[in-house]
Amino acid sequence: MPTTFLRRLIIYFLVPTILILLAYLVTTIAYSKYTRGLYEFLAFLLAADFAVGLRGAWRNAATLVAATIFGLAAVELVSAAMEANLPLYPRGFETSAPVLGWGPSTPGIYHSTKMGQGGAVIYSVDYTIDAHLLRRTLSGTDDPSVAFFGDSFMFGQGLPDTDTLPQDYADLTGRKVRVLNFGFPGYGPQQFLRALETGMFDPLLTDTKRFVYLTAAWHVGRASCRDDFMARAPRYELRGGEPVFVGACREGLVRFFQDAFMSSASFRRFLRPVADSVGPRDVEIYLAEFRRCAELVKQKYGGRLIVLYISGNDAYLANSGSADAGLKERLRQSGIEVIDATLDPKDFPPGTVLSIPGDGHPSAVANRARAKLLKDYLAEATPAAMQ
Questions:
Q1: With a threshold of 0.85, does the pTM exceed it?
Q2: What is the DSSP letter of 158?
Q3: Which pairs with CB-CB distance under 8 Å and at least 24 residues apart come from 272-278?
Q4: Which of 341, 344, 334 shows the shortest CA–CA distance to 305?
Q5: Is the dihedral of CA 345, 346, 348, 353 positive or negative?
Q6: Is the dihedral of CA 375, 146, 211, 163 positive or negative?
Q7: pLDDT higher than threshold 70 for residue 260
Q8: pLDDT (0 to 100) of residue 220
Q9: Taking Cα atoms as reference points, which of 164, 149, 173, 165 lies closest to residue 296?
């Protein structure tokens, strides 16, 4: 009897407790591409443990469940190994946020690393988040300020604070005007629109007349919530040709299904290439969000929206009925000022690196080149008092 009791205690209490503690330990370390697979493997161990303690048909059922979970974990871990490594962020850098979906939770210095194959370091940098929860930009105090919005390209992923595009612009203009960097990894046009609609940054934008957004065709899928990592982002639907906020990209059971099946490395590896591509509707939502942003910039702040557009993504738009050139032109037809921010390697000395090797985000050289494009454009298109 004591032996049976001890056996059941180990199977039904001690082993599950240890596995739960291991799962908690996984949550305390930096998220990596293997995290999901590790969770699934721990779930397999838990199911296998219960199968050992059961008898008859219940054991058979539990064994089948354990075998299924093991197969999913194996496929996920192999798929993750075939993907490029994800950047590692410390806790607090990318947490849930009520309006925009996610962002830093507290000011501070956050160290991020990204490793390549064989353990080579692709980058190892510090991101300074200021008291307003923005990437730090050293600039002046003169009016009117310039506000930069966008994703990881604008944020300056993989680069120190000194090499972001907004910081380069501040440096090129002598750090006279105030420059604000609202960019953050993963953001799409809807985060820009939602921020303008809610006025969440209005205390910082009272004297802002120039709003700059860096975009490319890959934002089309984000704008329409097609990309799986946008689950917490604001979602807009077209009603009468206008974008209307309707909640988060994924909610309720849809969010559960997304997290359970569509956010895995195995889905990205085997199913997304054949089942997921942007279409005409996605393009219309993308354009409508930018049109509305331009309207709000003008109505609320009396300002101008300047879009830095990076071309070279026709393959991404293959099933949308649009091409890069057409998308850029339709933005212009909407009354938005568009600067072609595509960089040609031929315009730089041989050997110039325009993207971080092994990563793809802009290099310091690329950011400085685009900041100069913006500065030169504004010098020609803006009265001296607003430069």
A1: no
A2: T
A3: 276/226, 277/318, 277/319, 277/320, 278/220, 278/221, 278/224, 278/226, 278/316, 278/317, 278/319, 278/320
A4: 334
A5: positive
A6: positive
A7: no
A8: 96
A9: 149
Distance CA 123, CA 290 (A): 32
159, 170, 294, 378 from 152: Cα distances, Å: 10, 18, 21, 23
Helix (H), strand (E), coil (C) string for 40-87: HHHHHHHHHHHHHHCCHHHHHHHHHHHHHHHHHHHHHHHHHHHCCCCC
Is omega for the bond preceding 144 within 30 degrees of 0, making it cis? yes
Q: Dump pLDDT digits (tens) for 7-23.
A: 565 666 666 677 666 66
Tokens of 323: 């091409």
16: left (phi over 0), alpha (psi -120 to 50) or beta: alpha
Determine the Cα–Cα distance for residues 211 and 239; give it in Å rounded to an integer.
26
d(CA 50, CA 38): 19
Query: Cα separations (Å) of 72 from 41, 44, 67, 78, 264?
Result: 9, 9, 9, 10, 10
C-alpha closest to that of 15 among 47, 63, 58:
47
Q: Cα–chain-centroid distance for residue 232?
A: 11
Structure tokens at 46: 């838990």
Q: Which of 122, 85, 136 is nearest to 355 (CA)?
A: 122
Q: Determine phi and psi for 215, rounding to 5 degrees.
A: -140, 170
Longest distance between any two alpha carbons in the chain, whole Å = 91
The total number of residues written for the chain in this structure: 387
Inform me whether the pLDDT recorded for 86 exceeds 60. Answer: yes
Kindly report, residue by residue over 228-248, the tens digit of the pLDDT.
889 899 999 999 999 999 999
User: What structural domains and CATH numbers belong to the chain?
Assistant: 2-82 (no CATH), 97-386 (3.40.50.1110)
Which distant-in-sequence residues (6+ apart) come within 8 Å of 254 by Cβ? none
**How far out from the chain centre does Cα 27 lie?**
20
DSSP one-letter code for 343: -
**What is the Cβ-side half-sphere exposure of residue 40, based on CA atoms within 13 angstroms?**
25
Secondary structure class of 92 (helix, strand, coil) = coil
337 burial (CB, 10 Å; 0-12 / 13-18 / 19+) is: middle
Residue linked to tokens 């995290």: 35
Q: Taking Cα atoms as reference points, which of 227, 189, 180 lies closest to residue 207?
A: 180
